[in-house]
Write a structure and sequence with these properties.
11 strands, alpha/beta, about 350 residues, about 15% strand, Rossmann fold, single chain
């Protein structure tokens, strides 16, 4: 897009909120529109803040287990789901959470919109905001797109995935799923994240969230798909998938994001499968109680074997179910509403 070069560096996104480097002082909660709550990333979020969101998600999950009776927590709140990238799980779970909370969801996609006529991202979002939308949920291929919206628009923004930067609600639902498996305790746990680390916003959110809660992360993948500064993210880098998995309390298998890759990063899919796929033999290297996660969409028998994806260790569908409750918690928090 023409304005992609103006997007803020994701390194400027701290404490889940965009900080304008020109503003002073800079502290948690500071934005171009003071008083608004945004969720742009998990980097910099405190353990206390993460636990509060997870507790709220548990409360929504428990309530909906008992009854799906409508609530009015977000009654009168209009939420624009501005998805500039394709999505199934994220988009539908946000919409379902909005409807269950009594909000009015407004769908938006690039196809059939003014974006297809050359309108810029910011002009499109400003136009929608001028209609009186209360919250934006934004998914975009450019890192920093949600932060740009948070800086420029006078409404709360939730990042539903921006480029290879972060996907904070996916990170939170992964944390909730792991908390369920581990009895709520993260201290001393270790998670192996496998595959295309370099292009994965899911991996970055998971790394930041797990570190905040006291867990260790080991990443493993082809050298061309592991960031050179991976150690600076606070994780260990293993030379092989076996080294990463051995004794780990959980494994997260990542999809090869070929749509974001330059040519030549992989010799072939076959070579990748032989060296890096999470199959049954490799899964046996995990701790006996360990679980297996995948953020989806899943390329079966590429990054993960079908018998592992569907096996007794798999909590993939639990991740999907937890996503609705997590996104409800985030939406209520950003809209500054409490449970009805």
């Amino acid at each position: 897009m023409a304005e992609a070069t103006t997007l803020p560096d994701p390194a400027h996104a701290r404490a889940g909120i965009f900080f304008d480097p020109a503003s002073a002082p800079v502290h948690p909660g500071t934005t171009a529109h003071p008083g608004l709550r945004h969720l742009l990333g998990l980097e910099g979020l405190s353990a206390h803040a993460i636990h509060d969101l997870l507790d709220a998600a548990r409360a929504w999950r428990a309530r909906w287990t008992r009854s799906r009776a409508p609530v009015t927590t977000l009654a009168g709140v209009e939420v624009c789901n501005a998805f500039f990238e394709d999505s199934t799980r994220t988009r539908l779970s946000f919409e379902l959470a909005q409807r269950r909370l009594g909000a009015t969801p407004l769908g938006f996609g690039v196809a059939g919109s003014s974006c297809s006529k050359g309108e810029s991202l910011l002009d499109t979002l400003r136009t929608i905001a001028a209609m009186g939308v209360d919250v934006f949920v934004i998914r975009h291929a450019s890192s920093g797109a949600a932060a740009l919206a948070a800086r420029e628009l006078g409404v709360p923004v939730v990042n539903a995935g921006d480029g290879a930067h972060e996907h904070p609600t996916q990170g939170l639902l992964d944390l909730l799923t792991l908390a369920d498996a581990w009895g709520g305790s993260f201290a001393g746990r270790r998670v192996a994240i496998l595959g295309d680390i370099a292009h994965s916003r899911v991996a970055r959110s998971a790394i930041h969230g797990l570190a905040a809660l006291g867990a260790r992360v080991t990443v493993a993948g082809p050298a061309t798909l592991v960031p050179r500064d991976a150690g600076a993210l606070g994780c260990d880098v293993a030379p092989t998938v076996e080294d990463a998995l051995r004794g780990a309390d959980a494994a997260i298998a990542l999809r090869l994001q070929t749509e974001r890759m330059d040519r030549g990063l992989l010799p072939s899919i076959g070579d990748y499968v032989r060296a890096w796929r999470l199959d049954a033999a490799r899964a046996r290297l995990l701790a006996p109680h360990a679980v297996v996660l995948h953020p989806g969409p899943m390329n079966r028998d590429v990054e993960i074997a079908s018998d592992v994806a569907d096996g007794e260790r798999s909590v993939v569908l639990r991740q999907v179910a937890n996503g609705v409750a997590v996104r409800a918690a985030v939406l209520a928090w950003c809209a500054d509403r409490v449970a009805a």
